[in-house]
Write a structure and sequence with these properties.
InterPro entries: HSDR_N. The protein has 147 residues and is an alpha+beta fold. The chain is built from 2 helices and 9 strands.
């Protein structure tokens, strides 16, 4: 897998019937290792190991309904009251983080209403603080503090 602009992670990678899997420490199972999953796993480890977010408050690939369509959020961190706190949309490294990518995450976040949002392809990560009253977002220099 491609080297990312995120801290390296210690993870278990396995070959099963010619396919590559990574052990997901949150879902506690092997999941298919795709470029997007590689980014997701790096971000999960970063949230837990560097920023001390609790594993119990992180949900991966959660379902949500947007304009009668079933969608999945990549990573959602919840606060201690079980409210969405931080939404992260992951893309494969070869997918540019663009206005379109940020708009996709923003649409998901209109449903979740997390006060913080990020978009990352593992090479570039952009974090935003959301203001739902004004509809504005403010780009941040790093990840939000613990809830």
């Amino acid at each position: 897998m491609q080297k990312l602009n995120l801290p390296p992670i210690a993870c278990k990678i396995t070959e099963i019937e010619g396919k590559t899997f990574v052990f997901d420490i949150l879902r506690k199972k092997n999941v298919r290792l795709t470029p997007e999953e590689w980014v997701r796993q790096h971000l999960v480890h970063l949230l837990i190991n560097q920023f001390s977010f609790s594993k119990n408050l992180i949900k991966l690939e959660g379902g949500l309904q947007y304009e009668s369509l079933e969608k999945r959020s990549d990573i959602v961190v919840y606060d201690r009251e079980a409210k969405p706190y931080f939404l992260i949309e992951c893309k494969a490294p070869e997918v540019a983080v663009s206005k379109k990518t940020v708009a996709q995450a923003s649409r998901y976040n209109k449903v979740l209403k997390a006060p913080f949002m990020a978009v990352s392809n593992g090479l570039k990560t952009y974090c935003f603080e959301m203001n739902f009253e004004t509809g504005d977002s403010l780009q941040m220099q790093g990840f939000p503090p613990l809830p």
